[in-house]
Amino acid sequence: MSGWLPAVALFLCLSMFAIAALVLFQVGSDPKSGPSAVPTAVSAHGFAGLRRLLDGDGHFTVINRYEDTGPTERGDLEIIMLDDAGGLFLSNYDALDAQERRDEEEAEGSEGGSQSSAGPVTPEQMARYLDGNTGEVPEPNRVNHILHKPLGKAVLVVAPKWNAHTYPRNPRWAQAPSLRDTKAISEVLQVLAPVHESETLYDDDDKIVRPAEVEGRKVHVGEDTTYSFDVVTYDIQRHSRPAPAKPQKPNPKNDPVVALGNRADPDLPIDQDLVLNPAPGQAVFVAPLRAGKISGLQTISGPNLQPVLVTADGRPVLSRVVIPGGATKVPVYLLSDPDLLNNQILAQPEKVVTALDLLDKVTPAGKKNYKVVFNMTFNGLTFDRDLLHALSRPPFVAVPVAMLILGLALMWAAFARFGPAQESPAGPPLGRGVKTLADNAARLMAVTFNESRLGPAYAIMVRDQVIRGRGFMQVDPSQSLDDLAERIGVTHGAADSYLNLKDKAARVANVHQLIDVTLKLHAWKTEIERAHK
Q1: Which of 74, 52, 82, 38 is nearest to 335 (CA)?
Q2: 370 secondary structure, DSSP code
Q3: At what angle do helices 481-491 and 454-470 cross, to 10 degrees?
Q4: In this predicted model, what pLDDT tens digit does every residue of 400-428 receive, in sequence order?
């Protein structure tokens, strides 16, 4: 069993280091996304193929999952996919709603204050949730990031288009794709317009003053800051046809769930060959782009969008975002149809050339191989800034790598140097003083050339140790201790005679003979001890 212990210990140590490395480096890895329009998704409407395409073309791509709360990696072009509304909007329930809820409870004499933190869900709110709309005012941090704090010298925002179900046999694949509701798309595009901030006003009773209602303006009242936003109306058109009508269920109570089921199915896309023409008045593109066949071409126009690439009938496919009365920090573009960049382009070389040409044109000139940052914080795939994440990213990743290599090296050195465990000595260990005295005495004997005189003394010491260890006493006065030691050796079957060894020890002439005799005396004592056991 003892022969297996080193192997078991080695296996446990290697397992510990392997688990530590797996946990550490898995922290900074890219998420394995399902069927969604994000840079790590391998489904048809994902963008993992675009990353590989850019890497293969000599460009450098990175995934950003850090919020704008510290230093982040920047590049020449930042690409943002608005795949969902998660985290893009402030909550519908603000400080003013909470105040009105408390006032109602006080007026009614209610004792249950546990519901004051969240009001009841109204049918209108449920309908908005079922439509995919979770808020009214865009998150200011998201808006400011796109318009004023980007991670690139240019920003390309990709609008959503498809909904899809998960393929049962592979959770990363998609099936049954359908066109997304235009209301949901218009909702997420609200992050392309500025959000205004003002101080929240209080009256003499320390109550929040309700802001004046303005048509087309949404307001979110916080404890300290009030956010207001002018809703932007987008015109979203697709090349599609209506789906066949389906039977309707009765809904006398106007149930939003039943109303959602009675809603008409999404339109069915129609394929068409697309040629993108440069819009008049822009200087980014000078020649048309042939995009090949596109299913259900989606175009988006709005008051804050300036066309850059348009279809044959003048509908914008690529637009530049403009701010009324101001300007964005860097050029911000909106791509209306994601099929020009997602994984579907890999099926047609013509689309690949068009995608690379489009990205080359919107990226500021000056570099042949530019750096592209795919920002996934708009898709709810963020992580915090902590020590574990910092150690999993360059340049600090060198610290855990060095520690792992050092640990493996120390483990290898321990096994190679010490070997199997040795039994501890049975007798008490000698102190440092005793060892020092013995060493000094040996050096003095060597200096005076009197080592050969130690032979008889060593023979007597070995004899006395054997007699004491066996518990013998000198009973017969006529029998000497040497004879007793000789008898003990014969009784235990020692190979050498003690009397002969003692005689040789008395006649040694040099150090080499002394060493030979002492080794034989030690072997004689060892044989007796083993036989006695």
Answers
A1: 82
A2: -
A3: 60
A4: 778 878 877 777 777 666 556 566 666 56
**Among the listed residues 19, 73, 14, 26, the one whose alpha carbon sits nearest the alpha carbon of residue 392:** 26
Query: Do residues 451 and 512 touch, judged by C-beta distance below 8 A?
Result: no
- What is the Cα–Cα distance from 334 to 155, expressed in whole angstroms? 9
| pTM exceeding 0.70 | no
User: Could you tell me the residue ranges of all domains in the chain?
Assistant: 1-28+387-422, 30-382, 432-532
* Chain segment 119-140, per-residue pLDDT in tens: 555 555 555 555 544 457 888 9
Instruction: Measure CA of the first residue to CA of the last residue in the chain; give whole Å.
Output: 23
Q: Which amino acid is at 510?
A: N
Alpha helices in 109-230 (DSSP H): 123-130, 140-147, 182-188
pLDDT digits (tens, 9 = 90+) for 362-406: 998 767 889 999 988 887 766 655 566 666 666 777 777 788 788
For residue 115, pLDDT beyond 50: no
Q: Kindly tell me the sign of the dihedral angle through the C-alpha atoms of 105, 111, 116, 119.
A: negative
Q: What is the CA radius of gyration of the chain?
A: 43
pLDDT of residue 1: 45
Record the tokens describing residue 297, joined without a space: 């071409």
**CA–CA gap between residue 163 and residue 190 (Å, rounded):** 20
What's the pLDDT at 118?
A: 47
Residue with tokens 């919020």, as numbered in its chain: 67
Residues 6+ apart with CB under 8 A from 458: 505, 517, 518, 521
pLDDT band at 113 (very low <50, low <70, confident <90, very high): very low
Q: How far, in Å, CA of 267 to CA of 378, rounded?
A: 27
At 400, give phi and psi (nearest 5°): -65, -35
How crowded is residue 165: how many other Cβ atoms within 10 Å of its Cβ?
12
- Asked if residue 181 lies in contact with residue 238, where contact means CB atoms within 8 angstroms, the answer is no
**What pairs with residue 298 in β-bridges?**
238
What are 156's strand-pairing partners?
79, 333
| Residue 239, C-beta contacts closer than 8 angstroms, at least 6 positions apart | 269, 270, 272, 294, 296, 297
The average pLDDT across 25-29 equals: 53
Separation of alpha carbons 294 and 351, rounded Å: 10
Q: How large is the angle between the packed helices 511-532 and 498-506, nearest 10 degrees?
A: 160
Most confident segment among 242-246, 264-268, 464-468 = 464-468
Q: How far apart are CA 227 and CA 197, in angstroms?
A: 5
The dihedral over CA atoms of 136, 141, 143, 148, expressed in degrees to the nearest 10, equals 160
Contact 84, 135 (CB under 8 A): no
- Evaluate the omega torsion of the peptide bond into residue 395 and state whether it is cis, within 30 degrees of 0: yes
